[in-house]
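Lab notebook, page 48
Experiment: co-folding of the full assembly
Goal: obtain a model of how the components sit together before planning crosslinking
Operator: M.T.
Materials (sequences as entered):
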Amino acid sequence: MRSSRALRLSQIRSRPSHVVYRVPRPQSVRNGYCTVCESPAGKDTAKSTTNPPTPLADHRQLGIEQELFTTSVYSPGSPLFLPNGAKLFNRLTNFLRAQYDHFGFQEVITPTIYKKSLWEKSGHWDNYADDMYSVTGRGATGEKEGRQVGEDEEYGLKPMNCPGHCLIFASKQRSYRDLPIRYADFSPLHRNEIHGALSGLTRVRRFHQDDGHIFCRPSQIRQEISSTLEFIKMTYNVFGLGPYRLALSTRPADHFIGTVEEWDNAEAALRESLDASEQVWTINEGDGAFYGPKIDVILKDSDGKEHQTATIQLDFQLPKRFELEYQAPAPELEQKGESTTDHALLNVQGPVTPVLIHRAVLGSVERIMALLIEHHNGHWPFWLNPRQVMIITVNDRQAVVDYAQKCKRSIQGLGSANVASNGSMTMKSPNRIAVDIDDSPRSIQKKIREAKQKRYSVIAVVGEKDVEAGRLVVDLTNIPKAEEWMPSHPALKRAANLHLSFPSKAKDGSPIRAVHGNFEDQSSVKRPLGLPNLAPEQLKSLPISPMDLSRFLIDMVREHR
Ligand SMILES: [Zn+2]
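Observation: model returned without errors.
Model output:
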């Protein structure tokens, strides 16, 4: 019998991220899954009647326990992210934003609603209308006024970003020298899923993609695909997701657009990129969208079940529909992805249609969150954990509570609220480390137990003595894999040696300057090269200044910022 988790994860099925042009499907099939036999609600009902209740690693349940998101009858299929969920969401998207600089993407911000005439141009209105929400303005008739459409025109809530990015590409003249142009967009998207299919973060009506569109020359396809595969590999490695395999879907037998030559060239480029990636890949012969071949990433979860997440799709159609072009020498050869040294040909410039690559590394951010929530089951890696530090006061005396607040600001890089002599506030550089305080009038044992249950990575305790010494006493053993590298971290070694009254000079003779109580000290940590590593038991109860703790935690998240 499959585990409950496997059963539930099986509901996280692939859905096409950019498919606009659909072939007709049987009536019981909508958005790529069967509403009759694969309704998540239906499965849950069946399970509850046949199996005894068991604790589930269900992202919906975990989402409540970890205070990540909630739902409302007023917004079916549109989850409301709570502060912890928003932290998680932003860490995922900010991680990708940081990679965009490296991979050459530029983030854009695009509208949520567009006129019906845009969706007619893109093909959505004919092929995707059932999955879209239409919107009309107050008092609008929905009537068109000839081709130039007036304010009365009906609008559509966007189910994908591609048409908006085509408008940006078309907003100015483009030369072959400008390409590739890569746009990224985290816009919320809306798709009109039927009510019975809605479930947690996996079947939603409102979601976000780490959406990207690459406009490139035909000769650049291979390089762009390779770079995207590298992006996916790096990201899944960082998130601890995998293993995964790659699947190439090729030209359908009869229903396709473009020439056979264009398809052959594009497929050859994809195959070469896949071979160069040195990753396992398979082929789905004839399974490509009719507007271009594609590569899907099939992720295997810990139960061995496969889920489609990332996708890379070539599109020959949308650039033509939007009449996109760039100027290039020898345009006919350029369109085929070929080059020449013939001066006569090179002297002729002309318009060429760019190739459009739709790509998403995570796919739906909500769906990846569901996978990660279940995958980690509360044991978040430090950089993702929405509950990173809990400061517990030993009592609720004002001096201790005030000190806990001061520690929180110091750990977060906020210092105290400085007001310059001219009265203006000084700029702060917050590090976004999540710090909570429990100053409730309960026993310290109870508060520690609760913080552990909530999976805080760092539990810090402060009392009167710590106020005097300018320190916190931290338990770092809840950080996953802590024992591997923390004992040698300079800030921790320094803290341990300061508080254990080790000599004030390191073996190399460099002084170790105490910073206890100095909340504004921004000086760099002297690397205590000569100090011994911490013993494992020291990680359980380490006295440390807020500044040293902050330095250590910043190092922990640095590579993911
Ligand atoms: Zn797209």
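Interpretation: The longest strand covers residues 206-216.
Next step: discuss with group before ordering constructs.
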